[in-house]
Amino acid sequence: MFSTVLDCAGRELVLDKPRICGIVNVTMDSFSDGGRFVDPSAAIEHALQLVAEGADLLDIGAESTRPGASAIGAAEQIARVVPVIEAVAARSSLPISIDTSDPQVMCAALAAGAGMINDVRALRAEGALEAAAASTAVVCLMHMQGEPRIMQDSPYYDDVVGEVHRFLSDRVLACQFSGIDKKRIVIDPGFGFGKTLEHNLLLLAQLERFTEIAPVMAGLSRKSMIASLTGQKSVDQRIHGSVAAALIAVQRGAAIVRVHDVSATRDALLVWQGVAAVPTAARKSKASNPGLWDDD
């Protein structure tokens, strides 16, 4: 069994129910909201709005990892995220995650108040594993085939679920050998990161397999797979599909869902939790609990 409490450098995230991670992109070229929150004051305001809407965790990043994205240097990432993290940490008690693969950015963000590292490269950059091990932060290890610039050119797997499972298992072991307690580790199968629609659907359908390794964070929000399934090409029109995907992920064992639309996701999960809380026997008989049917 895994720990039901993630200690994010002194800020706890209790995994007693599905938790919502709100996305704050301090970037110029994010696929969903590129440029809207690059100004620190706008990013801070957005982060606090996500807190008000019911986020349990905030993930703040300054480098887009959308398909075709270019790399951003450590100095620029730090200049973008540190003021936001400092301000949000001072005004909210929620755990804060830094979305980066750069060890310099990790260290600066942790010093500013972050307590979690969300790394699309699973701490494979030079110095990243050491930086995480030297901290008390939780780490989220994500699978990505290739690099953001080319990852969607021609993704291929013989067995996507098996290969992603093995990769994440190996990265967890690498972390443990480096001194990172397993209680500090979360994994993410990396939906959309070097995967076709079929790959993404297979991973989602078999998400429970990954819960054998560590608590799972699933990030499906507004991604191209939602557009492919719904026909909604505009990211702003992908909310309903994204909420459905988050709910399916939770039903298949995800401990955390990383989303843009916190309020809508929160409402959907509350309804699901309400139904899940009804005793099994009561679900079988309308007569056994008539109060559940007052609106009939």
Say which CATH homologous superfamily is assigned.
Answer: Dihydropteroate synthase-like
Tell me the CATH topology. TIM Barrel
Supply the CATH class. Answer: Alpha Beta
The spatial strand order of the largest sheet comes to 8-7-6-5-4-3-10-9
What characterizes the major β-sheet? 8 strands, parallel
* Strand and helix order: EEEHEHEHEHEHEHEHHEHH
Number of helices: 10
What is the general shape?
globular
**What's the quaternary structure here?**
single chain
Structural class by SSE content: alpha/beta
Q: What does it look like?
A:
The chain has 296 residues and is α/β, with parallel strands linked by helices. It has a single domain (5-293), classed as Dihydropteroate synthase-like (TIM Barrel, Alpha-Beta Barrel), CATH 3.20.20. Helices cover 39% and strands 15% of the residues. The protein is built from ten helices and ten strands. The protein has helices at 40-53, 74-91, 103-112, 128-133, 160-177, 197-205, 224-230, 239-251, 262-276, 280-284; strands at residues 5-8, 11-14, 19-25, 57-61, 96-99, 116-119, 138-142, 185-188, 217-218, 256-259. β7 (138-142), α5 and β8 form a beta-alpha-beta unit. α2 packs parallel to α3. The mean pLDDT is 91.
Summarize the structure in short:
The chain is α/β, with parallel strands linked by helices and 296 residues long.
Notable traits:
alpha/beta, TIM Barrel, eight-stranded parallel sheet, two-stranded antiparallel ribbon, 10 strands
SSE layout:
Layout: E1 5-8, E2 11-14, E3 19-25, H1 40-53, E4 57-61, H2 74-91, E5 96-99, H3 103-112, E6 116-119, H4 128-133, E7 138-142, H5 160-177, E8 185-188, H6 197-205, E9 217-218, H7 224-230, H8 239-251, E10 256-259, H9 262-276, H10 280-284
Parallel strand pairs: 3-4, 3-10, 4-5, 5-6, 6-7, 7-8, 9-10
Antiparallel strand pairs: 1-2
